[in-house]
Amino acid sequence: MSDALAGEPSQFDADTAIRREAGVWAATVTDRWNIGSAPNGGYLLALVTRALLADTDQPLSLSVTAHYLSPPQPGPATIRTEVLKAGRRLSVATGGLWQGEREQLRVLGTFGDPDRFEGPSRVGATPPRLPPPESCSPAWLISIPTQNEIRHRFDFRLPPDFEWGRPEPGQPLAVAGWIRFADGRQPDPLALVALADAFPPAAMGMGELRWAPTLELTVHVRNRPAPGWVAGRFSSRFLRRGLLEEDGELWDSTGQLVAHSRQLALLVT
Amino acid sequence: MSDALAGEPSQFDADTAIRREAGVWAATVTDRWNIGSAPNGGYLLALVTRALLADTDQPLSLSVTAHYLSPPQPGPATIRTEVLKAGRRLSVATGGLWQGEREQLRVLGTFGDPDRFEGPSRVGATPPRLPPPESCSPAWLISIPTQNEIRHRFDFRLPPDFEWGRPEPGQPLAVAGWIRFADGRQPDPLALVALADAFPPAAMGMGELRWAPTLELTVHVRNRPAPGWVAGRFSSRFLRRGLLEEDGELWDSTGQLVAHSRQLALLVT
Q: What SS3 state is found at B229?
């Protein structure tokens, strides 16, 4: 709980640190964000996004998409990037994470500052209705029988009356709860990219879920988050032959929508 | 109405035709899918997707994302592609559409055949409730005061009692209706990529909408569509300073979900 408070880099910042070396970005993939033997997809996307934000000199990823090629191993990695468009309001860039001659994920994104735009605003949804975090129960991927280092990285809370299960036919599989970094690091736009893939899968209600590896993850960051807990709502509507989408929303502690996400994943039962 | 019936290529197939030339794909961008002076983003994504499907030898785009850099002009274009992963069940590839030295959009996608997967299925949503197409009204982007060649490419129908407007606070802007190609071409997985961006924006209800250029578009094709009309449901929940997301679902004539989409767009009023 003390890293961020003591002025040391947080676990998230330490594990997404990048440095420029010979025209590429050097990074170190750690196993601290693993689910089983594979690093979490949101952690990996945040790592590459950090490099793309640096290259475009933009504050925020308006939209980033990762396609996952093969799981990285803990250790050194290289991020090779290319800026496709460098604008004042909007930049577009792509980058891949490599270990040796093998590319593990490719990312494509648009970067900018939504506060530099002018136009109408309207919120056509409401934040999840949750008891305050203090009244919620610490919970984690209790039904997934595998080693999950990632469970130590986040403080994740579910309402005390929540039960994983299958809703009525025609209704989505869904979960909503609170999340924050376990070491006290506050949310920021980059953290939202990781938080969008940090909840247990909404499809846990299908039972006997062993793993839900992400094939593709897209995160849209819409606003800078206020400090404090982040409320997340995740749902899956279309499960077909083990492939499913999961939609996420992240709301900050002031009740403001700060990011939404969608992923295509494979449900391994 | 006769191209497809007479054995000629349909307008969609003619305008997304590609041929291999000197290690790249050659294509011709037409203005037949224009909204104002810019080609529709779904048409452009379908054009690049066709090249990536050919390169990966896969039948279907499980997930494709386009980021738009600058609007192409009618005329010759080159599609430069790279296969990042070539698998039996899944392939990942990226490609850019270029005119001269200028790249207009970059696409990243995962390709495969969902029917080769095995696992549970579950539908947590219902198709839009619509009167049959014959009872719906032909409609188009009537409120957008610009030349829209694209209106001649699709037959688009709205329920007779539908009115563009702002729903209650906290509810999404939404539209649902029927769509098919005007020349009778039947839907297939590639067509779904274009159909996912062919509806008028759900944000038309905001009024005084001039244009809604797409910054990023992601389409997930989940199944092969049956012949006939396609029902679409599109909604926008989060409009902030003119930036908004739009979520789409496409259901085939048998009531089966065949694709879903999300885009980040800029609302120009």
A: coil
DSSP assignment letter at A239: E
pLDDT exceeding 70 applies to what percent of chain B? Answer: 94
Number of C-beta neighbours around residue B48 at 10 A: 31
- pLDDT tens string B44-78: 999 999 999 999 999 999 999 999 999 999 999 99
Q: With residue A12 as reference, give the H or E element that holds it.
A: helix A11-15
Check if A69 contacts B (Cβ < 8 Å): yes
Q: How many helices, marked H, and strands, marked E, lie in chain A?
A: 3, 17
Q: Which of B117, B220, B223, B245 to mutate to test the interface with A (most CBs of A within 10 A)?
A: B220
Chain A positions in Cβ-Cβ contact with residue B67 (cut-off 8 Å): 63, 84, 92, 108-110
Give yes or no for residue A141 having a pLDDT over 60: no
pLDDT of B5 above 60 = no
Asked if A238's CB is within 8 angstroms of B110's CB, the reply is no
Instruction: Locate the chain B residue with the closest alpha carbon to A217.
Output: B63
Q: What confidence score (pLDDT) does residue A4 get?
A: 47
Alpha carbons A223 and A225: distance in angstroms, whole number = 6
d(CA B161, CA B167): 15
- Backbone phi, then psi, for A59, in 5-degree steps? -85, -15
- The ipTM is 0.95
Position A3 confidence tier, pLDDT thresholds 50, 70, 90 = very low
Encode pLDDT of A127-136 as tens digits: 999 999 999 9
Please, are residues A196 and A42 in contact by the beta-carbon 8 Å criterion? yes
Number of residues that this document lists for chain A: 269
Compare all CA atoms of chain A with the CA of B69 and give the residue at the minimum distance: A85
Task: Report the residue of A108, A236, A246 to disrupt the B interface, i.e. the one with the largest count of B CBs within 10 Å.
Answer: A108
Residue B101 at interface with chain A, using a CB cutoff of 8 Å: no
Q: Are B250 and B192 in contact (CB under 8 A)?
A: yes
